[in-house]
Amino acid sequence: ALFFSDGDYIDRKFCNLLFMEKAVKKIIIILSWLLVAGCASLERSLVKDIVDTGKVSLNRCEVEGFEYGGVDSALDGGQVLKLLMIHGVGTHHPGYSMRLQENLAGNIGFNVVSRLPKNVTLLDPADGETEIGNLRVTYWQNKASGKRMLFYELTWSMITAPDKEIIAFDTEERYSKFRVPFNNTMKVFLDNTLPDPLVYEVDRSDLILKSGKQSLCWMLKTGWNDVPDGQKAVCALTPEERIAGLAGQNLMFVTHSLGSKILMDTLTAEADEVAAAGNRAGRFAAVRKLQQKEITVFMLANQLPILQIGHPLPKIHNQTDAYCFKGGSRYGRRLFKGVNIVAFSDPNDILSYAIPQTFADKYLDSRICPRVTNVSVNVAPEISAFGFGVVDPVAAHTEYDNSPKVINLITRGTLNFGADEDLNGQCRFIRMEKDNKMR
Fold first, then answer.
1. Three-state SS letters, the chain
2. To the nearest whole percent, how much of the chain has pLDDT over 90?
3. Cross-strand bridge partners of residue 384
């Protein structure tokens, strides 16, 4: 028995029951804690499976093709580099290339940029009134090294915007609320991208192609001080001025998806004009200088093969030996010494394609002497959950301009690949030789 200060008596059995009840309560509380902790641990395990192990870095980077100089080597001579960017499918707005510009600038060492870019509203030369795009120019430089770059950014999305209104209803709540989030994201992406190549294929006025031609014209015609900033204008150059500009200026190009087709069609049109001018004027000095010139085109998420479907063959095709090799029967009628086409493609990008060498021979104009280098590179990580791995197809199509490997290959090229420890550690280079140089 127990006695308390107030003299009350409590039976020993009752006291034992009291202590047992408290003990049971403690055991229940402890078991509850363990159960909760177990559930939390299970939840954390599930979250870990879904999130923590979600992003798996994919490291593929294989370069197969010819040696080419990067942006950095083009800046070594002291001449200002003019680089034209042409976007691809999807709605774009002026300034879309800034991430690419900043990544290139950081890799090259540019530390000065123009306070504001300059903008030209492009007009259809057929009527001088229809707006066909915006050309934005940004000036980059490193004053200490003397390196300078004018970055020309073409935005042609305004041309296809009216056509996209036809299917704009598809993303309204009335229709999208029945889709699961991933499928809705993909539907929005496809609705925003699929109309662009369709419009390019059926546009009888060739407004998108004209936009590319006008951009090239302004690129050849202007320096920083004479860009018609804030104006609506048509660019016009004589054939002789175009040839002299192509031959004498330091030029490079970057395209994305559909932009690759726009640029190649633009260069093919240039080949036709140069051929016509050459026939009239004879082999004057500018043509000969142009024929000794190499230019490089970096194609991100290249789409040339899929966009060739339904198109006729170029006027001049399967004749690279005749046009591009010394001793060839038409060697004196080429446009360039060579066009280095560096085609980047993520294997998980469902809207991108490599360029087989046989495709280059058959479907690219032989007069531009194309030399194709394919880069198979992962730009988006794998998302893994419950043993399954997927890659976001949108990221795989849009993240090229933010990939360190892609930026390095654009800025450094492959001329010194063996001595470049960074590139050697990131990528594998399989160098091709022209057929007549193989031993």
1. CEECCCCCEECHHHHHHHHHHHHHHHHHHHHHHHHHHHHHHHHHHHHHHHHHCCEECCCCEEEEECCCECHHHHCCCCCCEEEEEECCCCCCCCCCCHHHHHHHHHHHCCCEECCCCEEEEEECCCCCCCEEEEEEEEEEEECCCCEEEEEEEEECHHHCHHHHHHHHHHHCHHHHCCCCHHHHHHHHHHHHHCHHHHHHHHCCCCHHHHHHHHHHHHHHHCCHHHCCCCEEECCCCCHHHHHHHHHHCEEEEEEECHHHHHHHHHHHHHHHHHHHHHHHHCCCHHHHHHCCCEEEEEEECCCHHHHHCCCCCCCCCCCHHHHHCCCCCCHHHCCCCEEEEEEEECCCCCCCCCCCHHHHHHHCCHHHCEEEEEEEECCCCEEEECCEEEECHHHHHHCHHHCHHHHHHHHHECCCHHHCHHHHHHCEEEECCCHHHCC
2. 57
3. 389
Alpha-carbon gap, residue 48 to 52, rounded angstroms: 4
Instruction: Kindly tell me if the per-residue pLDDT of 397 is higher than 80.
Output: yes
Tokens matching residue 146: 């003397």
For helices 98-108 and 404-412, angle between their N-to-C axes, nearest 10 degrees: 60
Dihedral angle at the C-alpha atoms of 211, 213, 214, 219, nearest 10 degrees?
A: 120
What pLDDT is attached to residue 25? 52
Instruction: Decide: residue 215, CB within 10 A, 0-12 exposed, 13-18 middle, 19+ buried.
Output: buried
Question: Among all chains, which residue has been given the structure tokens 């007549």?
Answer: 436
Q: Are 319 and 275 a contacting pair, CB within 8 Å?
A: no
Question: Which residue has tokens 């001018």?
Answer: 277
Look up residue 198 and give its amino acid. Answer: L
Residue 338, strand partner residues: 294
Tell me if 221 sits within 8 A of 235, measured CB to CB. yes
Closest to 255 measured CA to CA, from 182, 341, 192? 341
What pLDDT sits at residue 278?
A: 62
Give residue 149's Cα distance to chain centre. 19
The per-residue pLDDT for range 81-120, each reduced to its tens digit, is: 999 999 999 899 999 999 999 999 999 999 999 999 999 9
Whether residue 401 contacts residue 99, with contact meaning beta carbons closer than 8 Å, is answered with: yes
Q: By CB neighbour count within 10 A (0-12 exposed, 13-18 middle, 19+ buried), where does 74 fall?
A: buried
Which tokens go with 337?
Answer: 């010494």
> For tokens 């399989």, what's the residue?
430
- The position carrying tokens 């029951």 is 17
How far from chain centre, in Å, is Cα 249?
Answer: 24
Could you report the per-residue pLDDT of 344-363, keeping only the tens digit for each?
999 999 889 999 999 999 99
